[in-house]
Design a protein that fits this description.
- The protein is mainly alpha-helical.
- The protein is 74% helix and 0% strand.
- The protein is built from 5 helices and no strands.
- The protein has helices spanning 7-22, 29-73, 80-91, 104-130, 135-158.
- Helix 2 (29-73) packs across helix 3 (80-91).
- The protein is flat and about 85 Å long.
């Protein structure tokens, strides 16, 4: 099955793994406290993730406005400090507002639906290929090409240090 766990699902799994697979075998009170602190940090990340992009966009838009407001509040104040503030307002404060990110849930639902559709296509193409339809080879290659691109991208993203996790 082509599942696509969310980042939250993965983080929840890390918390459970620490609790169920590591903590029972940790004898040191200091190490147990460290595991609990890690669980707490992971939970904090879980709570921030759903709103992080929205907060960043909102703060970006607010900061550009604040820069403009600060410069405007100075009125006719002169001097190098006031000039630097006005320059920041004229450059960074002039940046366009960024749009709020879209709701990711519909995208995830559609992605999952499309993943299952590709999986079902592979099954159907297998039947067609076995029936002697060579066009199925070309069609299957299109799916393989897409999947390989995803595998390469994921491998590049997941690589840690000089190799895969555990090797670097």
């Amino acid at each position: 099955m082509m599942t696509n766990p969310t980042v939250d699902d993965l983080l929840e799994g890390f918390i459970a793994a620490l609790q169920n697979e590591i903590m029972p075998f940790v004898d040191s009170p200091k190490a147990q406290a460290m595991c609990q602190m890690l669980q707490s940090l992971i939970q904090e990340v879980r709570q921030v993730l759903p709103v992080y992009d929205t907060y960043i966009a909102d703060e970006h838009n607010e900061m550009t406005k604040v820069l403009r407001d600060v410069a405007a509040a100075l009125g006719s104040v002169s001097g190098p400090e006031a000039d630097r503030i006005r320059q920041r307002a004229a450059t960074l404060g002039a940046k366009a507002d960024v749009p709020m990110p879209t709701d990711q849930e519909p995208i995830r639902v559609a992605h999952r639906e499309l993943g299952f559709a590709l999986q079902d296509c592979i099954t159907d193409l297998d039947v067609l290929q076995r029936a002697g339809h060579s066009e199925g080879d070309v069609a299957l290659q299109a799916i393989r090409s897409h999947l390989m691109t995803r595998v390469v991208r994921d491998t590049e993203t997941i690589t840690v240090g000089s190799g895969m996790a555990g090797r670097g």
